[in-house]
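seq:
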Amino acid sequence: MKYRLMGRTGLYVSEISLGAMTFGGSGPIWDMVGGLGVADSERIVGTALDGGVNLIDTADGYGDGESEEQLGTILRGRREDVILTTKAHARTGPGPNDVGQTRLHLMRNLEQSLRRLRTDYIDVYMMHNFDHLTPFEETLRTLDDAVHQGKIRYIAAANLSAWQVSKALGVSGRLNLNGFAALQSYYSLVGRDAERDIIPMVLDEGVGLFVWAPLAAGFLTGKFNRDASDSNGRRGSEGFPDFPPVDHSRGYDILDVVRTIAQRYDASIAQVSLAWVLAKPGVTSVTVGARKPHQLTDNLGAIDLTLTEQDLAELDEISKPAPSYPNWVQSGFYRDVRYPQQ
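struct:
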């Protein structure tokens, strides 16, 4: 395993991290995602730790809280070996205040997560989405209080836009509060929106970048094809959204190139897809989930795959998104007009 610094902190995290969304839960949604019992989840965690993974990611809502409960059981005696991330924002009850990032909800939710995880502290506590009602000042003061209480080591965010993170960092700086040390965002060969503003922002602000769904919920494992979907997979299944959304016709063209490169190295399609993300600037760690240990073992093999400049160029070309405004102006013809002619 290789390790990278999380933004401007001194904290080293593994290049591949384990997502625990497949742990626990029942019913149509969680059964489709994973719905693993404790014994199966423990095998996944053991495979990850044996492979050098030191970052495990969960959330209060995964498996309706069972993901945190399982990790609390599994990590007894091994808590110090793990950098543990969990999240808050999702609805956790029927009441009007059982959701969001208010002081009331966060203080209550943090205590519940600590109880389920059987720990005294969370290494990285993430805000799972943008709360358009609660001011950043309220959220960030609450998180800063929890840091000073020793219940949180670092604070972070997930699924925020670049301007929202920058604004939050500005508020933290103005109020002398702990600020977001990392951002978790979706990024993959079939979903490169993060390159427009998020990646330039994390590079400029020195924020760590954790990538979720680097395999686009299994699309970039190669188990889906133009003719038929894997009946055991969840992409396109009745009643389950295409999440994250993928332009399938374009995605299959991308998969053709990934498959060709995979054959050059006798590697899997998933390994090439992960190696591409790990080669991109700003990326700290890619988070992968698994239902079976062999899936995780295959993903961990991406660490040993180094793509050449030619490989990366081929993948970049087939997957490049259309330039967005104002990026195409700022990076194009007008970029140098402010400099005098030599």
